[in-house]
Task: structure prediction
Amino acid sequence: MTDATVSLPADVVERYEKFSRFNSPYPAHDRGRAVDLYPGDGVGRSPVSGTVREVRTVGCPDRPYAAAEDHLIVVDLADEWCARAGAPPGTVARILHVIPEVDPGDRVAVGDALGPTTRSGFFGQWVDDHVHLGFRPPGANPLRASGSLPVAADVPVEPVAWDGTGAVVERGPTHVVLDGPRRAAGADRSFAALASDEGVPLDGGLTHYAGGGTFEADEGAPTTGDAEEGASATRDAEEGASAADGTTLSLLGTKVGTVRADDTDAGAPRVEWAAVDVRANGRRVTGLSLFAARGDRFGVKVVCPDREFEIGESVTLDIVPSDDPIRLGVG
Result:
């Protein structure tokens, strides 16, 4: 029997600045059974409504940039929320990366502050603070690290073309954010993501995590972007494309992966990344951190712990086949 898919309603997802289902090395994300929701302001707001069942402090990998512990908030979901999300009554939500300011027995509604987000050793230094959300079926042990239900997000994502060039607008210890790709003039606050050459919006760590994914494209909107050369296939796309099993995806003229729709538990298909390297100004970097984002927060994040770029510096990315691609694990 196939597990029921929990589909986050659009008005829940739209409370956050960004979201991603595949931008993580952990198995739950790789199988489409968790979603990361990025609030953008350091407040861990609840994406669900129900009653807090349990709050627990857990250990996490030792990282010099991270807190020594993380936290798990378990919520018994309200029947009304389950009905909206297509989840069976009795489904339980698991929320991580929030320092709890709620207690067992507290009732929470969508948008309520659960506490501040925390820098956790469960995610890389280049990853912004976020709310990790997963679901367990009725009767399952909510404290185990495995066994979550498939998760989908009921929002379309605009695919945005890009020619691989941009200027640095943000710099962190292990990453930079570029000002490209640019959305079309007058773009609204809907979600957008980097498009493959075929017009498919991409999700995940390209290609430093073994697998990535795609978003459900907004089929009613044209593929937009500022690419002038080197991405004519994307430029010519008239509508956002859907990804079928076995479809080859390319970016900046190079094959980057193959869609494995039959190897995904729910929602948008998984992508098996090809053996490639991402290069910035001719030198290899770790990869691209991809997600769906709204408004002016949209921009490609380049993971580059061994490189330094200045604010305003021009960067040109290219992708080339590799005999030894970077793959980051969970250890």
Q: What stands out?
A: The chain is about 5% helix and 35% strand. Residues 60 and 122 are 6 Å apart (CA to CA).
